[in-house]
Design brief:
mainly beta; globular; 11 strands; seven-stranded mixed beta sheet
Length: 121
């Protein structure tokens, strides 16, 4: 079973950029769809970007044009490039592995521990 570890979370000012990474062990990404999710305090976990087979992508409307999901199969690493960050992007960010191109958390069975992103105005 794949084990996921996120990194790259930080505190940044509004308008700044961050790149999150998610490294897998125990299995390769090629057999999974991978997703980035986030959960702000007091809110439900939401899907923001999903990638399958490196070419099929889905983004939440709230991040389209600002965030980019990608993966490097050679490094077994998933990325989320986040540009033009806003205070409302503040949340714990999680990567997850599943088998379906979806933004719904219920389609993803394996989760990392999360990395915190805080955006100040």
């Amino acid at each position: 079973q794949v084990h996921l570890v996120e990194s790259g979370g930080d505190s940044v000012q509004s308008g700044g950029s961050l790149r999150l990474s998610c490294t897998a062990s125990g299995a390769t990404y090629s057999g999974y769809c991978m997703g980035w999710f986030r959960q702000a305090l007091g809110k439900e976990r939401e899907g923001i970007a999903t990638i399958c087979s490196a070419v099929r992508l889905a983004y939440a409307d709230s991040v389209k044009g600002r965030f980019t999901i990608s993966q490097d199969n050679a490094k077994n690493t998933l990325y989320l490039q986040m540009n033009s960050l806003k205070p409302e992007d503040t949340a714990m960010y999680y990567c997850a592995a599943g088998t379906y191109l979806s933004l719904a958390p219920s389609f993803f069975a394996t989760w990392g521990q999360g990395t915190q992103v805080t955006v100040s105005s």
